[in-house]
Give the backbone structure.
Amino acid sequence: MGARKRLKAEARKEANKSIAFAKLNKSPIAPRKMRLVADLIRGVEVNKALNILQHNAKDASTSLEKLLRSAIANWEQKNEDKSIEEETLFVKTIEVSGAAMLKRIQPAPQGRAHRIRKRSNHVTIVVDAKNAE
């Protein structure tokens, strides 16, 4: 590895020390429906985001709540020297992207057929600590 590449990698590693992420792959909810809930918690403090997800009636909120709790646990595991009560955690980024589609056929009148596309998604949540300075 060259010197510039190594220095850049070390700088990136230092910058990523305070963040933690969690991924949810192949969630059987359509990405459009998942994005509606994800937009509610983007950039919000973690405790407030958990409260929003607990009181939301959409099905996507339950899987996002589990994922957010996982990201918080990952942050605690990564930063054992810091306390979660002292730090102000927030949802830095949340990304919902499309995954594979299940393609089915629905019989229609007069010998025709309609396509049914059952969409799924991948979600990535990044949690970071705000500096109190």
Observations:
- Residues 60-78 form the longest helix (19 residues).
